Inverse folding.
């Protein structure tokens, strides 16, 4: 059996449960962006020097298949929609708090690109934010999305930003936006 089924040659694809829709449908755009997010996290993981972050991000990649499937599965599908549990969001929140407690974590905006692995986490964060924006657009367009999907993506973007900063702290890299003589407000944010 080949993956080249030719069923999508006319611009349609199948949702879970066999429902056919246009590849231009916003739902397809959203779950396609989940695929991009999983891949960009995979790249960050592949070049990350921190074994704990590698393990964490691999487990997140696995969860993202489930979260993306929850978006891809329409209510009328004969396949049951995966449930995105509160515990999944809570686990990300706990990781955010754990990394935030790291001594010396950047307390300013950062400039991506001081290290390949931290930059890769920043790219993954921006893909996550785009995924979140598209999911919100889908929900605002009348498609039912589990609230925990949006919460998961929001929390994940924070976590990915922190992963990049943690790598920089561990490698003793300064990526802060401002020079020490700039006395403007400082605040670490995932945008």
């Amino acid at each position: 059996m080949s993956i080249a089924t030719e069923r999508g040659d006319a611009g349609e694809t199948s949702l879970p449960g066999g429902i056919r829709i246009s590849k231009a449908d916003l739902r397809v755009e959203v779950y396609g962006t989940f695929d991009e997010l999983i891949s960009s996290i995979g790249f960050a993981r592949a070049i990350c020097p921190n074994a704990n972050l590698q393990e964490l991000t691999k487990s997140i990649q696995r969860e993202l298949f489930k979260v993306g499937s929850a978006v891809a599965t329409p209510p009328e599908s004969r396949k049951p929609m995966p449930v995105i549990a509160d515990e999944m969001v809570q686990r990300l929140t706990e990781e955010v708090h754990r990394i935030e407690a790291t001594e010396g974590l950047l307390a300013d905006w950062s400039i991506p690109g001081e290290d390949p692995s931290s930059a890769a986490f920043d790219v993954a964060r921006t893909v996550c934010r785009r995924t979140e924006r598209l999911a919100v657009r889908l929900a605002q367009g009348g498609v039912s999305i589990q609230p925990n999907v949006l919460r998961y993506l929001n929390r994940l973007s924070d976590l990915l930003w922190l992963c990049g900063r943690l790598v920089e702290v561990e490698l003793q890299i300064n990526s802060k936006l401002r020079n020490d003589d700039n006395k403007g407000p400082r605040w670490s944010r995932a945008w």
Summary: The chain has a mean pLDDT of 87. The radius of gyration is 18 Å. The helical segments are 26-47, 51-72, 86-100, 116-140, 147-170. Residues 138 and 144 are 8 Å apart (CA to CA).
